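Today's session is about reading a structure prediction critically. Students often jump straight to the picture, but the first step is always the sequence itself: look for stretches that repeat, for charged clusters, for runs of hydrophobic residues. Only then move on to the predicted structure, which in these notes is written as discrete structure tokens rather than atom positions. Here is the chain we will use throughout the hour.
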Amino acid sequence: MFKANIHKKLKEFELDINVESDAHVLSILGPSGCGKSMTLKCIAGIEKPDSGCIMLNDEILYDDRARIDVPSRKRRVGLLFQDYALFPNMNVIENIKCVYKDSCGYSVDELLEKFRIKDIKDSSVTKISGGQKQRVALARMIGNDPKVYIFDEPFSALDSHLRWSLEKELTELFDELKKPVIYVSHSRDEVYRFSDEIIVMDKGVILEHSKKNDLFSCPKTVKAAMLTGCKNFSKIICQDGKFYAKDFGAPLSVDCKGKKYLGYRAHNFEITDRIGDNTLVGHVERCIENVFSFIVIVRTLSGYELVLEMDKPSYERIKDLKDLIIRMKVDDMMFFEE
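Below is the predicted structure for this chain, in token form.
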């Protein structure tokens, strides 16, 4: 069980975090500068909150009222930094041995084998690649036998191919680890693949804390939906007892009483040939080709810039059309009260 109640005044905003979770992998998702890394530093004891309480299982790491502040070196928190924080004056094996504990369950040689760094064990960490540095940092963290593993944007400095390779390895590692994992990223795809639960943060506060599938299928706020990748939002109005997605220019077949906004993900739209409820009409303004899909920008009759995403076979069927009738499926609509 992990609990954190952290209050700390920062330059741009005040960090105000209150979270409790028993998830194996808890992720924090949010834009750069929202307070994710500062939250981790407070948990690890690198930074001190102004007030609050941090507890891991039954151990209090910090409590301002009880005047408890366990030093970072005694918290047994394994933190993998974005830059890996390896000791540049040591070679690979020295970086691992300097913090190694027998209780971790692996010998040093087993860690070298596990992370495929045995052939560079005598190399300076300043002379190895980014992927190798990350493996050394992982081996060092596991060898230190922490009570919780914390990953702060671990793939931010890696190219896409290496990122994917290491992500697969990290997924397997998480399956092996029997201790809590806290994973931080601004990438919705990363946190979705890794997590059991996800916290959405912005400007120092938690917008939402949900199970992974609940967050992506039914986020509770517009901001949380934005941070999980939704690009289309409309105000909801009621005229003569009928609800409309005002910005989309679409009549709705559902009762939206008490709801102020509708969100709809780009990949869920369908192209149809029939105008009716839950449909909108628009003119294709431009198409952007991705590796395996197309982004189609449509200007609706109401003037809204709608974003659709479709696979290439689907795009081939409509590529010559200048105007589209677009349908929203009721089950994929997301409604928000504010």
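Discussion point for the tutorial: Residues 43 and 55 are 9 Å apart (CA to CA).
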